[in-house]
Amino acid sequence: MSFGDILYIIAMFLFAFITFGIVKNYYKSKFDDEGRRIDMQDEVDKEEKQD
């Protein structure tokens, strides 16, 4: 394998790792520890108070 092939493989692994990290952090910021969406909690809290 040439140096360019090795560099290409390393770049693809880094791309996949960074993309996975970005997606993981995006979803981690959207959901709380119990798996509920953070932006939907206000509506759920209002419904619980009405019941």
Layout of helices and strands, plus pairs?
Elements: H1 3-30, H2 41-50
**Portion in helices:** over 70%
Instruction: Spell the H/E element sequence.
Output: HH
- Structure classification: mainly alpha
Oligomer: single chain
**Beta-strand fraction estimate:** under 5%
| N-end to C-end Cα span | 67 Å
Spans with pLDDT under 50 lasting ≥5 residues? none
Largest beta sheet, briefly? none
How many strands appear in the DSSP assignment?
A: 0
The overall average pLDDT, rounded, is 84
* Count of helical stretches: 2
Give the C-alpha Rg: 20 Å
Shape: rod-shaped
Written description of the protein model:
The protein is an all-alpha fold. The chain is 75% helix and 0% strand. The chain is built from two helices and no strands. The protein has helices at residues 3-30, 41-50. The chain starts with a helix and ends with a helix. The mean pLDDT is 84.
Provide a concise account of the structure shown:
This protein has 51 residues and is an all-alpha fold. It has 2 helices and no strands. The protein is rod-shaped, with a radius of gyration of 20 Å.
List keywords for this structure.
51 residues
